[in-house]
Structure formats: C-alpha cells, structure tokens
Amino acid sequence: MTTKQTKTDVVLIGAGVMSATLGSLIKELQPDWDVHVFEKLDSAAQESSNEWNNAGTGHSALCELNYTTELDDGSISIDKAVDVNEQFQVSRQYWSYLVKKERLRHPESFIRPIPHISFVQGEDGVAFLRKRYESLLFNPLFKDMHFSTDHEELNDWFPLMMNGRDKSEAVAATKIDYGTDINFGDLTRQLMSDLETQKSSVQYGQSVDDLYQNPDGTWNVNVRDTVSGRQKTYRARFVFIGAGGGSLHLLQKTGIKEAKRIGGFPVSGLFMVCKNQEVIEQHHAKVYGKAKVGAPPMSVPHLDTRYMNGKKALLFGPYAGFSPKFLKQGSYLDLLTSVNPDNVFTMLAAGAKEMPLTKYLIQQILLNKEQRMKELREFIPDAQSDDWKLVTAGQRVQVIKDTEEGGKGTLQFGTEVVSAADGSVAALLGASPGASTAVSVMLDVLERCFPERMADWEPKIKEMIPSYGKELMAHPDLFDKVFQETADILKLKEESSHQTVSNQK
C-alpha cells in the first residue's frame, strides 16, 4: 500500500557516477535543496560505474583512435578528440576542487598517472597513426606526444608487447606520459558518501517503478523497497534518470515527447584478465589499437594496466558479447520491453542498417578461448593461455534514434542527454566516453534544466572549474595553469612528464 507523499526538490535515480556528480554539483550550487537518491542495488557503483565494468581510461582522447577519424580526402578529423579532451579537463578541475575542499579525501585511490599509448600494425596502420600524430602535434591539449616506429624504442615503452615480435613487422605507436587510470567505482562511492554528509538522502535497495508528471509540473516518483515491498511516493520538482542501462525504460515511462522514437541496443563486454603477477609487472601503460571492421567503437582493443583496490591488474579486450539485458543484473526481457509503438520503426530500421554489427557480434559470441588468445597475441606475441582468464564486464546500451545525418534508426556511439522542454526531467543514455566526461555532461543538464539560475550559479561554477565557458585549446596558458594545479592537487605531478612548453617534433 502506498504511503503519503514526501516532497523533495530533486530525485536522482541510480547511484552511478552521473547521479553522484549531479548531486555533488547541486549541493555545491544550491546547498539548501533537498536531494534524494534511489538505487535498486545494495550499494553505489555496482553497474556501469564499477571498476570491473568500466574501462577506467580517463578518456581524454590521448590514445583512443576512434576519436580521430580518417576522412575521404585522407585528412584526419580531430574535432571529437579535442571535444573529449576538453570535457575531461573539466572533470579534473572539479575533482581537484572537491579534493581541495576535503570533500574527496583520497584522490590516490581513484586516479593515478599512467602513459597512454596508441598502437598500430601494418603499413596502412602506420600511415594512419603518423597522420594522426601530425594532426595533433601542435595542439596544446596533446602536448609532448611522441611517435615511433623503432622496435628498440617501442621495447622501452612496452616490453611485454615487443617480446617475441617479428623485427620486420611494421608497427608504430604514439605515447603521452601524462595519461591517467581512473577507478570510477571508488570515485563514485566517495561522491555518494560525501552527498550523505551534505544532508542528502541516499537510499539503497529502492526500485523506482514508475513516475508521472503532475499538473503543476512536479513529478510523482513511485519507489518500492526491494526487500519489504513497501511503496512510497516522492513529489519532486526535478528528476534525473541516471540508471545506466535502466534509464531508457524509465525515460519511456515519463511520456515526454523528447523520449519518442528512441531505442537502445545492448552490447556486453568481456575481458581477458591476467593471473600471472610476473606478467602484470612487465607492463605499465594503457595501449589502444584500432577497432576491427564492423566493430562498434566501444570495442577498440586495448591492453590496460589498471589499479583496483590499490592492486595492479592487467586486462585485454573488450571482446563483444550479446545479452538482451540492459544491465548486468537486469532482465532478459529488457530489449523486448523497450520496443513500443513510438520507436518500433526506428528499431527495425536500425536492424536493417546494422548488419555488419550483427555479424561482428555473432562472430565474437562464437569465439572460444584460443581464438580470443589469438587476438590477444596481436598485442602480446608470447601470451600464454594459462596466464589469462575471461571476465564478463558491464552492459552498455547504445542509443538508436532518427537523425538528419544518418536517417532513420541510426545507432549512436556516445553519451546523450535527453531532457523535457520544461526542464523538469532529464535522462542520460549511451556509453563511452561517459564517466570521464561526467562533470561536463552534468553541467549540460543544469544548463538545460535550470537556465534561469545559471547567471546566479556562474561565479561558483567558475570557482570550481576555472576554465568554465572557455575552450582550453584556444587558451594554452590557462590550460597549462589548470593542468599543473590539478596535477598537484590530485597528486599526479611527480610522475607526470607534462611540460608547459610547445610540442617539438
């Protein structure tokens, strides 16, 4: 039986990095607002934000080749790379502010310096990487990038990958020393714990089953305790749906017109995890390659040094898998129940257009361990099967919608905010770069949903994020300043080779 309504200013659905970031920003900008967080599981960051379900690269496009595309004329477009890097710098600034204010108390547990490397094979790959390097070389956001085709130099960068490699093989790599490894699970848990100290209500084991808008523009949010089954209704002025793969269903329940003709396609990720500590210690970098033809951008292969609970780990992947679930702990009916009269033709159009993706997923699902090891050996020629085990990572739900550029049923690769015209509700859909750009994305939510308050909030935002409203690429001195300051505060500077000088060939 539903109890009486509880009034609140803000409801955040999901205890992942997006809700945690938005809640943190709101309490900084409007500390008197009442904030309620509801999470279906029993603790924060158990799905997409979890360290085992998230790449943790600190996506800044330093090494991710899918953010720099080769155009028909042979030139390299760096627009996406610059945009992602700009957004990551915003996140760094905000995290630094919270550390300085002792709102985040242990930066070393969620962010570490580590080289970011791009790696390619074959003459065509080498030519592409050289052009990419030359396109980024003098951009202030990509300072001190080094390019090499020399096997001996590459052996210094990643000996594990060069041992046993044919010396005649054409390979190349770029390296930037000031990349980062980020444990977004730890970061999320710290943010959520801080929210609780800011007189916010963070409740676990609470499933949001329905929500609907009242005539006055507020939202009734129906919440069910997953153990007792007791239900309660919260009446909120603003609702954010940050439930990862669960966001699409809740967005559809809102009935807002902006949610129509949007679908989702789930892709699961699997990683090979190294069990041999001697092998793990031979590699210290995040090395990204090129996605195979037909593979989604989120399936870019990478050999990843990670730190989980302070312990060094080594992962390779992701191998794509398929499950109709939208969350690891979701339902096998998720995909089917997400199709409705509003989006069925969009979904059918996507199915017809994405045959290469379907073929790729089928091929990936049918791989056995030795076939997966063959892909791993393109990175580590001497990899031994007994040293590696397969681990299932998180579920990602790619957005499908109608666009002017791609037409009906276009599969989107990225992070997307959907918000109502009146600003009373917003949802986050999509995947990578996701967590790395959380602060920029949540500032976008605030700008969309609270435009009348932005002028009053702007001085505080600029205190938290000195570059707010500016492109760091166009202000290299400001970039150098905030980069060095954040490196100091986040305890990255000692191991970072970033210098405040222009690139040199």
Automatic annotation (TrEMBL):
Which regions span the lipid bilayer?
none
Q: Specify the superkingdom.
A: Bacteria
Swiss-Prot/TrEMBL keywords: FAD, Flavoprotein, Oxidoreductase, Tricarboxylic acid cycle
Copy the pathway line from the protein's UniProt record: Carbohydrate metabolism; tricarboxylic acid cycle; oxaloacetate from (S)-malate (quinone route): step 1/1
Q: Which EC class does it fall in?
A: oxidoreductase
Reactions catalysed according to its record: (S)-malate + a quinone = a quinol + oxaloacetate
Signal peptide from the UniProt entry? none
SUPFAM superfamilies noted in UniProt: FAD/NAD(P)-binding domain (SSF51905)
The yes or no answer to whether the keyword Flavoprotein is present is yes
- Name a single GO biological process: tricarboxylic acid cycle
Q: What is its EC number?
A: 1.1.5.4
* Gene Ontology molecular function terms on file: (S)-2-hydroxyglutarate dehydrogenase activity; L-malate dehydrogenase (quinone) activity
* InterPro entries membership: FAD/NAD-bd_sf (IPR036188), MQO (IPR006231)
Required co-factors: FAD
Q: Could you say which protein family the record assigns here?
A: Belongs to the MQO family.
HAMAP family reported in the protein's UniProt record = MQO
Query: Which protein, by its recorded name, is this?
Result: Probable malate:quinone oxidoreductase
Per the UniProt record, the source organism is Salisediminibacterium beveridgei
